[in-house]
């Protein structure tokens, strides 16, 4: 291994070290109370070292969501590659993929949805913002392909596929945010999975064309 490759590997290792520490700090203190100094202490690094990798707390917070979006992209590829050819089967596989995405890292996905509904995005570097946009756009387009196939087959209602994908993703994020906020009030209440199941069932029934139609 050359010097350049060794340095690149060390840089990525240090970056991951910071991200892991940031995840722990954000989970303990929340975004607003956490500081770069807290994260540096957790990572056993100097605050100056953190700023070599992330320009601010917002960028570090947003970087956590990239893993979720990348995993979502992988699951979407599996849906299109491995699912049965019918649109209805692909829709079922898509729903299962959403459960997998949530289980992959529940805390980070909740943080990601909070991030998307906040002003934090304004403080991100153009490069990171571009990565988030590209990954999100690709996943929405992959979902839209499933709905487009169903519309063309006369199985799903005639609504723009991108609109259906946006509704599906909004349903997913909305349920997670709402149920997680309820859990803050009462730790014993954790109905995210049950509510998602009901929401996906209602959505699936709603986009199907009934025999009477």
Describe the structure.
There is one protein chain. The protein is mainly α and 213 residues long. It has 2 domains: 1-54, Orthogonal Bundle (Arc Repressor Mutant, subunit A); 64-207, Tetracycline Repressor, domain 2. It is 79% helix and 0% strand. Helix 7 crosses helix 8 (161-185). The longest helix has 31 residues, at 3-33. The model has no long low-confidence stretch (mean pLDDT 88).
Sketch the topology as an H/E string, one letter per element: HHHHHHHHH
Mean pLDDT: 88
Give the number of helices: 9
Low-confidence stretches: none
Question: How many discrete domains?
Answer: 2
What overall form do the CA principal axes indicate? Answer: globular
- Helicity range of the residues? over 70%
| CATH fold naming of the largest domain | Tetracycline Repressor, domain 2
Query: In whole angstroms, how far apart are the ends?
Result: 65 Å
Summed up:
This protein has helices at residues 3-33, 36-43, 47-53, 57-82, 87-104, 106-116, 126-152, 161-185, 192-207.
